[in-house]
Amino acid sequence: MPSLSNIFPNSKDKIPLYEKDELSNYEDEWQGKEYISNILKQYLISFSMSPFNVSETYLQVQYQKSKFYASVDTFPDDLKEAETEINMMSTNVWDEAKDKKAKTKKEKKEAENEVIKRKDIEVERIERLGDGVWKPIHQIIECENEGWTSLLKGSFTSWIYNVSSTISQPFLEELLNDIFDIYEDIDPRTNILSHMIVGVALSPLELVKTRLIIQSTATPVKKYRGAFHCMQTIVNEEGGMRGLYAPRYVIPAFIYHTLVPTLRIISSHILNDYLLLTPFYNPVLYPLVNTLLLAAEVVIITPLEMARKRIQCQIKKPSSRQQQLMLINSGLNEPVKFETAVEVSPIPYTGILNVIKRVILEEGNDYNDEGNGNAFTQLWYGTKSLYRGFWQILIRRFIQMAETMNDKVDDW
């Protein structure tokens, strides 16, 4: 290969040192400004999207028991008839013992109701949230114990998550492309793999954000006083670092962060390769079709989002001796109770499918509707309940898509 001195006699083989230093300093300064600009942009996005994130989380986590489910007795008709026959054949001694037992249960139940009543006085939860985008936000603002400041809960954690994901995911994708000698601009394999790895690695931040948002503002003693305190409390009370990366959190995160980029790549393939649309030659049709495809993606991921957040709200009680020692070392005799801003399910969920099944069977119709109907009606209302927070997720994904398209236009 000829040197520069052979082509230009008066030139040297390398650029003068002062020119290289000026160019290098200029590039470093420009990259530094670009990083700062991206960080500030992510902060503004996280701050402005916070009301939608809070209302979305409240809607998806709130346990809205259906009147159809509540109206069904716990005993089938044949069991009730059998119980009646047994009562008719019972002796007076049995009746007296049964009355005494029933009286004891009644007194115990009254005592429990009194405790629940006192707790309700201390912490008043938000009433049943309505559908739509603005109605839940309005209800949160109008709630005396929450107010407009509650709409900013979790914004700092969202900002940390967005900045970390924005920086680490492209870096990891480029690193994977170099490792596997891939020279395409976007390779589906490395793109999905990088999103999945980063999503699972940052899943504790999503766990912290959900718990901070769902925590009641009105509780006198907060279980979590901030993002770092929440993470420290989970480590102390739920089994160390295994509490942050427990399978009940990691498996849904793995599925979610694998499914989301996969759906986006499929949508991009439909747009670019099948429909042959581009944002430059089809400035109207391209964003319209892209928005429709984005809505289809949200239809698929919304039930998964609901399942993830409901599982994230469940606190695992210390069971082993090691966890008990961690609790004692943290300086607490017992964990501070986690008071939620909305009512959550009294029975813990066992997994994603269990959440979806129970939402369909237990939740559904509007509170003002009559509590009678057939199985098909309950199935319809229950399936509809899986999509609470749909519009909030669609707005959030639309803003992310617009930001990505804007970056592509700038690169072009």
From TrEMBL:
Q: Which UniProt keywords apply?
A: Membrane, Repeat, Transmembrane, Transmembrane helix, Transport
- The protein's superkingdom reads Eukaryota
> One GO CC term of this entry?
membrane
Compartments reported by the entry: Membrane
Q: Coiled-coil intervals in this record?
A: none
* The keyword Transcription regulation belongs to this UniProt entry's keyword annotation: no
Q: What is its main location?
A: membrane
- Give the membrane topology: Multi-pass membrane protein
An example of a Pfam family matching this protein is: Mito_carr
**Solcar repeat spans:** 190-274
PANTHER family in alphabetical order: MITOCHONDRIAL DICARBOXYLATE CARRIER-RELATED
Family note: Belongs to the mitochondrial carrier (TC 2.A.29) family.
Please identify the protein, giving its name as recorded: Mitochondrial carrier
What organism does the UniProt record list as the source? Anaeromyces robustus
Q: What is the lineage of its organism?
A: Eukaryota, Fungi, Fungi incertae sedis, Chytridiomycota, Chytridiomycota incertae sedis
